[in-house]
Amino acid sequence: MSNHKLTQLKKSIVPFEKSDLKSSIKQLINTVPPFFILWFLAYQSLSVSIWLTLSLAIVAAGFVVRIFIIFHDCCHGSFFKNKKVNSIIGTITGVITMFPFEKWKREHSIHHATSGNLDKRGTGDVWIMTVDEYVNASFKERLSYRLYRNPLVMFGLGPIYLFFITNRFNRKDARKKERMNTHVINVSIVALYSFMIWMIGWQAFLLIQGPILFVAGVLGIWLFYVQHQFEDSYFEDEEEWDYVKAAIDGSSYYKLPKLLQWVTGNIGYHHVHHLSPRVPNYNLEKVHETTPPLQKATTITMGSSLQSIRFRLYDEASKTFVSFKQVKHLMPKSRSNVQIKSKQVSLQGKS
Asked: What do you get for the CA distance between the two ends of the chain, in Å?
């Protein structure tokens, strides 16, 4: 894309970067109260059937994902025009979703500024190793990486680690504002959970809140994972890296059924979001539909997205993701065997 077309593309998006107070309030109303209503119904259903409780908890988990999208927009300062209001709503929704507002805002902004940059990985993103890095890594590093990328670990233990460890502690060099916000959210969560346990008992609380958090966590990690882990996703070294290419070519359009699109707050239009984080979630679809160049982004469906599970390493040579099996022949053991055979051939030749 030429610089002129790039300038025109950015200009065409500007009108959609403004939040609409009515739309934001409407989204809060159709998202937060229904979550609490579902939570209450799940509690009431305990006396009827545990399966009904779990069903209601799963539906409630979908609303937690939608609440997280509101939290996410507040982090970008795109949900409301007022910075302070974004901070307040972001902190409140952070308590509901168990995410620290200031901490995650900083990490996520780094993710946007470095997405697809091979030289600046490690903050706010999924751990990705290149083929060369994996082949030359120590056994311990390869084992850690394989465990991390294992679906049972990433989507099974991942939510637990995210909610109760990663999100609960500040980085060592965190500023005072960030530290205080994390502490406020942690204390609020403890107070809220303690109150609920006092009200209904720890067994009932765990039977409802446990599945809600776990399912919401799995869905959240999956969405974050799949929208950058498609076969020909964009990754480049610092010298070649380009923000716009990283946004359009390195973020997918996850085409979901309308109901799931609503539940996930249009985050499937991830290429639009990465191109302009200032666009509130309720405007993402409009940008995609009215901007032809953005419609050329890689489109994945619920079916095709499942293929991303086997994408484990990024191959800089082919510019694609590959599986562990595809690089097995490059592993140190294989190279050692080749070297031994070469030496044997050499010695036989000399003899």
From this structure: 62
Chain centroid, CA 105 distance in Å: 13
Alpha helices by DSSP H, listed for 115-226, are 131-136, 139-149, 151-152, 158-164, 176-200, 202-226
What is the Cα–Cα distance from 115 to 235, expressed in whole angstroms?
8
**Are the C-beta atoms of 146 and 53 separated by less than 8 Å?**
no
Q: Which is nearest to 105 in space by CA: 142, 132, 79, 81?
A: 79
∠ at Cα 18 (13, 22), nearest 5°? 135
- Check if the beta carbon of residue 280 is closer than 8 Å to that of residue 239: no
Residues 297-314, mean pLDDT to the nearest whole number:
92
pLDDT for 138-164, tens place per residue? 999 999 999 999 999 999 999 999 999
What is the enclosing helix (H) or strand (E) of 289?
helix 284-290
pLDDT digits (tens, 9 = 90+) for 212-254: 999 999 999 999 999 998 888 999 999 999 888 888 889 999 9
Does residue 287 contact residue 272 with C-beta atoms inside 8 Å? yes
Tell me the pairing of strands 253-254 and 299-300: parallel
Question: Could you give the CA distance from residue 36 to residue 63 in angstroms, rounded to a whole number?
Answer: 9
Hey, which bits of the chain come out as E strands?
Answer: 129-130, 253-254, 299-300, 313-315, 320-322
Question: Per-residue pLDDT for 351 more than 80?
Answer: no
Query: Which of 186, 209, 185, 187 is closest to 197 using CA atoms?
Result: 209
Measured from the Cβ of residue 114, the count of other Cβ atoms closer than 10 Å reads 20
What pLDDT shows up at residue 330?
87
Alpha carbons 312 and 77: distance in angstroms, whole number: 33
Q: Is the dihedral of CA 149, 150, 155, 160 positive or negative?
A: negative
Q: How far apart are CA 61 and CA 52, in angstroms?
A: 14
CB 80 within 8 A of CB 89: yes
Tell me the residue type at 318: S
- State the pLDDT at residue 3: 55
pLDDT tens profile 7-22: 678 788 889 999 999 9
